[in-house]
Design goal:
With about 200 residues, the chain is of the alpha+beta class. It has a domain at about 75-190: SH3 type barrels, CATH 2.30.30. Helix content is about 30%, strand content about 20%. The protein is elongated, with a radius of gyration of 35 Å. The N and C termini lie far apart (about 100 Å).
Length: about 200
């Protein structure tokens, strides 16, 4: 059997180990009470950091030529079915493009729509050589459209300082490229504000 001093030393040591955040004076104060409530400190669990999947850099994409269209694929006829799919997509998006639909409603939807497959025409430009270019949009980037013309020529047309017209089932809409310098994915989430006068 333990003596009273040994028992006291054991209890003191046990309480210090059980309540590491308490000072000796506080522990002695607790011992004078009839009941001792031991404290429990749970260890904080560190959450494992999620590793983000890294995509290709712009340089790697250029080296791999991910966005380049092969010369043998640069034919207008190949992309006509894409245009037909785009027209059906716009009809579904605008609920049939009925004559009684308000023009600003359709324009609001077209601002956020995917334009890959649309036939566009450059109607105004600060560079006269771009005016009149008509074709199917194959690729849309932040600053340029890649358009395939009926002559099977791939044209890279900048958005800046150009106005494009877009015709769908008799409804003609105009795209002011200078106000349209966004990626397709960014446009779908952007809130466009109505503006009064728009210039090139």
């Amino acid at each position: 059997p333990q003596g009273s001093e040994e028992a006291k030393a054991f209890v003191n040591a046990f309480l210090k180990r059980s309540m590491p955040k308490r000072k000796d004076e506080a522990i002695q104060d607790i011992l004078t009470r009839k009941a001792v409530v031991l404290e429990h400190y749970s260890k904080k669990k560190t959450k494992p950091k999620k590793k983000k999947t890294k995509g290709f850099t712009a340089k790697q994409r250029r080296e791999m030529r991910l966005f380049e269209i092969e010369p043998e694929q640069q034919r207008y006829a190949i992309f006509l079915p894409l245009h037909e799919l785009w027209k059906q997509y716009i009809r579904d998006l605008c609920h049939g493009l009925k004559p009684d639909v308000q023009p600003h409603v359709i324009q609001g939807k077209l601002l956020k729509a995917d334009l890959h497959g649309a036939i566009v025409t450059v109607t105004k430009s600060k560079c006269p050589s771009y005016v009149g270019i008509t074709g199917i949009i194959l690729q849309e980037f932040k600053h340029v459209f890649k358009i395939i013309t009926k002559e099977d020529k791939l044209k890279v047309v900048p958005k800046l300082n150009n106005v494009f017209s877009l015709e769908t089932d008799g409804f003609i809409s105009y795209i002011y490229g200078s106000k349209f310098q966004l990626r397709a994915s960014e446009r779908s989430a952007k809130k466009f504000k109505l503006k009064g006068t728009i210039d090139l």
